[in-house]
Amino acid sequence: MWSFRLLLPLLALGCTRARPVAPTEKGPRAVELTARKGAFERRLLLSGEIDAVASAELKVPRVSAGRVTIRWLENDGAFVKAGAKIAELDNATFVTHLKERALVVSQAEIDLKRQEWQNNLTETDATLDVQRKRATAARAEIDADVPPGILPKRDFLEKQMALRRARSDLAKSEETLATLKHTIALDLQIKRVSLDKISRDVKQAEQMIDALTLRAPADGTVLIGDHYEGRKLQVADDVTVGLTVARMPDLRQIRVKAQLSDVDDERIAAGMPVEVVLDAFPGRVLAGKVLEIAPVARELNDRSLRRVFQVSVAIAREGGTELRPGMSARVEVIADRRDDVVLVPRAALSGGDGAPAVRLVGGERREIALGPCNPQDCVATNLPAGTRLRRGTP
């Protein structure tokens, strides 16, 4: 009973404090804005990265299979000296072929030497036979060189017949020697041609093995090529003929390769000034200009639905700024710049389907002619600077 009586005043006090207080003001104070004179800029933000104007590309050489496996690969971004190994492609097939052809070459060289020795012996025998026949013919000429009437007629005729046989045998022997030399020459030529063909196969295999080891043409930074899945190439990847395994950019000529979304087409043009800020050097702003814009938009990769225009930007290299290909950069294209114009805050513009307008501090609505706009301000052509404005209403 007493507890209930004590609670009644407390409940009454709580209800009194929870009662809302009526506001004493009619509404929030209106925010005042001012039209001012200044410089107007309209910028378009692009993302990009440092790229080299020219670079040496190390590609997969032509192989019979059309594709080859990467056995070893240098680290992406590594600095290497001229002649250093960048990538090593699988050459097991060519090494096996080289060993087989080397054995064939050795056997062909042995066969050629054996044939040359045999031919020399045969030719020597034939030459000796010719010399013997020549000596026999010479003796027959001496024996037959007797005036008629000195010897009996039968002996004279026999010596003449012996001379004719000796000369006939000599002619046949000389003809045999000539034919033998011609045959030997043709046979050796055929064997040498076969040996040269096999030797060329060996040399081509050696050249292919050497070509499958990609080396740096000069001192520089290595940029590993991209896989079709959108990543960098790795060891054990299969690569096709002509694919760029790595690039060696020329660091003397640097540019920025940026991307312009297809929805922003025709918002920038070649020759427009730009400001570039590298993520690695956020405190430095590099000046430059748009060099060219690709005429056709392309997908970022095979799996992307976004289409972009490639934009090439020339930049001025500052001393002490180490620029490396692959560095990410923020590119701000200054698409429009005007000095000494009247700027109206966009917050002061009134909505509606009619002409753009602002509301003065006194409440008067005034239509204005607007020029270009950026996210903060618009250029007004018929409003004096210093005009005090209210925040616009939708």
Question: What does this 3D model show about the protein?
Answer:
By secondary structure, this protein is of the alpha+beta class. Among the domains are: 71 residues, OB fold (Dihydrolipoamide Acetyltransferase, E2P); 120 residues. It contains 3 helices and 23 strands. The protein has a 6-stranded antiparallel barrel. Helix 2 packs antiparallel against helix 3. The longest helix has 59 residues. 18% of the residues are buried.
Keywords summarizing the entry:
23 strands; 4-stranded antiparallel β-sheet; 6-stranded antiparallel beta barrel; 394 residues; rod-shaped; 3 helices; disordered N terminus; OB fold (Dihydrolipoamide Acetyltransferase, E2P)
Secondary structure: elements and pairs:
Blueprint: H1 2-17, E1 32-34, E2 36-52, E3 55-59, E4 67-73, E5 79-80, E6 85-89, H2 92-144, H3 153-211, E7 213-215, E8 220-221, E9 223-224, E10 238-240, E11 244-249, E12 254-261, E13 273-278, E14 281-293, E15 298-299, E16 307-315, E17 328-345, E18 349-350, E19 357-359, E20 365-367, E21 370-373, E22 377-380, E23 388-390
Antiparallel strand pairs: 1-23, 2-12, 2-17, 3-11, 4-6, 4-10, 5-8, 6-7, 9-11, 12-16, 13-14, 13-17, 14-16, 15-16, 17-22, 18-19, 19-20, 21-22
| Global Rg | 49 Å
Q: Gap between N and C termini, in Å? A: 62 Å
Mean of all residue-level pLDDT scores: 83
* Largest sheet strand order: 2-12-16-14-13-17
Tally the beta strands. Answer: 23
- What's the overall geometry? rod-shaped
Task: Determine the number of helices (DSSP H or I, runs of at least 4 residues).
Answer: 3
Helix proportion: 25-40%
